Amino acid sequence: MEGIPTQSTRAKHVGGALADAAVCTGALKVGRAGFSDVPPFLVDIAQGALQCKFNTVYLEFLGQVALARLLLGAVLRALLRGVTLDHPGWYLLRVRDGRRTLGCALVSRCSDQDGALIDIRLVAVRPDARRRGAGSTLVRHVLQCARGDTRVRCTCTVYAHEMVALVQKLDFRRTQVGRELASGVRRPDEFTYRSRAGLKRSGG
Ligand SMILES: CC(C)(COP(=O)(O)OP(=O)(O)OC[C@H]1O[C@@H](n2cnc3c(N)ncnc32)[C@H](O)[C@@H]1OP(=O)(O)O)[C@@H](O)C(=O)NCCC(=O)NCCS
How many CB atoms lie within 10 A of CB 104? Predict the structure, then answer.
């Protein structure tokens, strides 16, 4: 697969990023990701795309480059402006166990016709760190950041069975199957979930 570092390359990039803990759940801490978190996250996304856990556009070099730009931009913006999830834009969050990054989540704060929204776009936990609470710690952190009328939405492919189980466990409700992009492209193999708390607030 073009452009995807090997496992040994990836290991060199793990850890050593900025410590910026915002939430601590037991030994797991969520905070803003650093530049060194981006390459292993890209690898996890590309490998997940091979199993259709993510959009297969991330198997293509141009899709990987576009995602890399988005991730690096999110890290840089947070570094330069010190913004938190209270501001509109993209964020890359990471969860650490004290020694190393276990996984990351790409989220955006935006709005739609129903008001403020935090969109969980991509979540990946290192394969050797799964099923130890890292993924749910990231999603719980986002839920805690969604104060007031802000709703939380999560979109994933229908093949992301682990993520589907995770959000259902955290009381999200499936609101949509398939998605029409602004470009007119239809993505039939996607589920959209909304946090139940947000649905109650917006009367959904
Ligand atoms: C989805 C993913 C992020 C979950 O991360 P994780 O750290 O393993 O998840 P957690 O340990 O927090 O699990 C929380 C709950 O999710 C569900 N879950 C997670 N993995 C599961 C699995 N393999 N089978 C069934 N349920 C699973 C369970 O309900 C679990 O709770 P439990 O362990 O008490 O039963 C991880 O599996 C992953 O990176 N998968 C590949 C990429 C992907 O699919 N990303 C989502 C697309 S946006």
Answer: 27
Sketch the domain layout of the chain as residue ranges.
Answer: 10-201
| Total-model pTM | 0.85
Q: What is the pLDDT of residue 53?
A: 96
pLDDT score recorded for residue 13: 31
Q: What is the pLDDT of residue 83?
A: 73
| Beta carbons within 8 Å of 17's beta carbon, 6+ residues apart | 33, 34, 35, 36, 37, 94, 101
Question: What per-residue confidence (pLDDT) applies to 149?
Answer: 85
Distance CA 106, CA 139 (A): 11
Residue ranges in the chain whose pLDDT is less than 50: 1-24, 202-204
The beta strands (E) that lie in the chain are given as: 21-25, 28-32, 89-96, 101-112, 115-125, 151-157, 172-180, 186-195
Task: State the distance from the centre of ligand 1 to the C-alpha of 158, rounded, in angstroms.
Answer: 14
Q: Which of 121, 130, 158 to probe ligand 1 with, by most ligand atoms within 8 A of CB?
A: 130
Distance of alpha carbon 42 from its chain centroid, rounded? 12
Q: What is the CA radius of gyration of the chain?
A: 16
CATH code: domain 10-201 is 3.40.630.30
- Which residue minimizes the CA distance to atom 31 of ligand 1? 166
